[in-house]
Amino acid sequence: MEGVRVSLACALFLFAVSSIASAAIVEHTFNVQNLTLSRLCKRQLITVVNGSLPGPTIRVKEGDSLVIHVLNNSPHNITIHWHGIFHRLTVWADGPSMITQCPIQPGHRYAYRFNITGQEGTLWWHAHASFLRATVYGALVIRPKSGHSYPFPKPHKEVPILFGEWWNTDVVALEEAAIATGVPPNNSDAYTINGLPGNLYPCSKDRMFSLDVVKGKRYLLRIINAAMNIQMFFKIANHRLTVVAADAVYTAPYVTDVIVIAPGQTIDALLFADQSIDTSYYMAAHPYASAPSVPFPNTTTRGVIHYGGASKTRRSKPVLMPKLPSFFDTLTAHRFYSNLTALVNGPHWVPVPRHVDEEMLVTIGLGLEACADNTTCPKFSASMSNHSFVLPKKLSILEAVFHGVNGIFTADFPDQPPVKFDYTNPNVTQTNPGLLFTQKSTSAKILKFNSTVEVVLQNHALIAAESHPMHLHGFNFHVLAQGFGNYDPSRDRSKLNLVNPQFRNTLAVPVGGWAVTRFTANNPGAWIFHCHIDVHLPFGLGMVLVVENGPTKATTLPPPPPDLPKC
């Protein structure tokens, strides 16, 4: 019996040693600087990381620690957000400007340090200060730790596919003008795949992403929508895709010929190269415009897939173009968004918490900003439950929480909208025009540690009915149900999926509709919950969740790092 105990102790020791040995500290330097690029017949000055667009792909394994040294050699204030990372007890590295840190000023630096725990798949990083996200972004790929495998056939190759938007202008000045006037900024001039617009745009014949494949091989496409304001339809001619993960959470395999992806979201999809090698195939993406009355750039970006071993040269090959859905095809978008489900009992699967401690109904959408003299301004505003979020200017919210500084934010975000109305009726303001005007505030909701929170997100139609991609920092949430019209608990509670709902960090709430989400507030800190359409966040479509400390040191917010930037 003693020998069994010794053997068991040795086995546990070796397991612990091997687990530690398999983890690594992955270190990178991000040099943020200006760069002049030629696109669309014009040379444009932009801000990038390490001289490239997109920026570098960060590759780690689950269990690794990341250290990213950011050197700001640009003329702009900057922060970097690690989109989708949980940041358990490393909230100081989350990155949203004036939420968890003051920005890194020109000529200064900051080291982001955090662990990759309990997550595998595709995430990404991007600027979280002003419109710099348009060009400051890149992929963050998390593979299983050593000795572990994917819960799907091993791919021959992994390929990041990042959608973006390109402006033939200074994007920082564009945002500043939008904030000053209250008018949304001009639409982008092109969409891009991996920084390249594709040959449907002027001066772009040779600026198109190209992927070489081998017939009979399987490829893992790590798809990221880094576009600023646009949800995208994506197809590859004559090929079907199998979705295996969303927002770095494994899903039940879902076979489709079209991907729909909102800003901030990621999709992992397997591509099986099974078509004729004597033909090339375009991959193409264009907008899903959920609000037809709102102007949008109705253009298409595309790349191309070439099969190796063909008898014809690339120039002589025919190239097939996929038929993309209509820009306004809400049914196709909703079918894709609502059909994804979790891979139950897969790696890092999290069951739905059944007991709910906090229930919230939050309305989201555009309104108007009132002038000081109570007359109507020609300014758009955006809000959650009529609270239009304003970033603090003197101190970040997280620093105010940690140091107990008053006057930076108010703990008064409501559990219910201040006024109940027919949310999705576009004519409701004819009888109650006061609904249009939003209240400017820096509001937070205080949550007890480990409480279970259910948030019903309800789009309204006061200005326009549209789909909003809502992103929660620091957590994933279960998407229990989605639908159109006004949420009605007596009718819609029966639709909740408590068995295998998707579990993600960014959700496209259906146009003129609602979604029920649920998460456990087990991560102390200050976390922003906001719309990932960047034209909406500066107008106020956000709020903050402050999660209180837990009972132990391991569940207590640590002090700020010594190099945290100062305001």
From TrEMBL:
Binds 4 Cu cations per monomer. Pfam families: Cu-oxidase, Cu-oxidase_2, Cu-oxidase_3. Residues 32-146, 158-310, 412-549 form the Plastocyanin-like domain. Keywords: Apoplast, Copper, Glycoprotein, Lignin degradation, Metal-binding, Oxidoreductase, Repeat, Secreted, Signal. It catalyses: 4 hydroquinone + O2 = 4 benzosemiquinone + 2 H2O. It comes from the Eukaryota. It is found in: Secreted, Extracellular space, Apoplast. GO terms for cellular component: apoplast. Belongs to the multicopper oxidase family. This is Laccase. It comes from Arabidopsis lyrata subsp. lyrata (Lyre-leaved rock-cress).
